[in-house]
Amino acid sequence: MYNADLHDRLVSSILPNVQSPASYLGGELNIVRKNHQEVPGKLCMAFPDTYTIGMSHHGLQILYSLMNAREDWLCERVFTPWVDMEQQLRAAQMPLYSLENYRPLHEFDVLGFSLQYEVGSPNILTMLDLGGIPIRGEQRTMHAPLVIAGGPCAQNPEPLAPFIDVFITGDGEPSLPMICDLWKELQTACLSDGGYRDGEAGRQQREQMLLEVAKRLPFCYVPRFYEPEYRDGRMVALNRTTTEVPETIEPSVIADLDGIPLPTSPIVPYVECVHDRI
Fold first, then answer.
1. pLDDT score for 277
2. Is 79 helix (H, G, I), strand (E, B) or coil?
3. pLDDT value, residue 259
4. How far apart are CA 40 and CA 42, in angstroms?
5. In a designed cystine with 26, which of 57, 99, 109, 206 is the match (CB 3.0 to 4.6 A)?
6. Does residue 278 have a pLDDT over 70?
7. Where are the alpha helices (DSSP H) in 45-171?
8. Torsion over CA of 49, 51, 52 and 55, rounded to 10 degrees?
């Protein structure tokens, strides 16, 4: 459902005070806007950099199109706000939101970060905080979205391990739908078994669900079940804390590149981006 109240507050009191306000409005040509009340699965793709950089990334467009082609999932977008917008949001006590329906990040089932380069890592913490999601994974219950991350820098996950629930290794086209579907299945199982719990019981409940992810999807690295071993300042091993998870993570691989359709109606930004693809 479109959050008209948040949109109106942005337009009237926030966006007139920031640079490039169109970067925070959404509504571009070819966006997909679905009703949150009619779609069971809700994914927000998060790019930890500004809109003009994130919208230049072709991979984001591919995954956005792939997930929105499904009737049981919606996929929306969010980018790191520039410093002036961050200050405005904090001063107004407004959450960071998706561009399609202006929904706060904490309302989604899955929040997926694209890790293209290391310098964007601090922005992930900013986005989690602004989105109303506990920054550290150990603090989250099932009430919070599943925080996942993929892309090139997911191959070096340890600096972000305290903050990301699941790292997706390999190609995102086959793996993203699988992790989203499994998490939705696990959410449903929790709701059928007395609902989401709070406090320490809630954190333990979430840990059990994350264990299921680690056991059932070989391309998922769930850092809370592994302990890095360091020697002379260098990591020399990654040891399991339970034998229930795989010792080696196998990346997801696209078996047939021709079987992955490219977006036929990509989003066309209303502001100049770093790379204008169209």
1. 66
2. strand
3. 79
4. 7
5. 99
6. no
7. 51-54, 58-68, 83-92, 121-130
8. 100
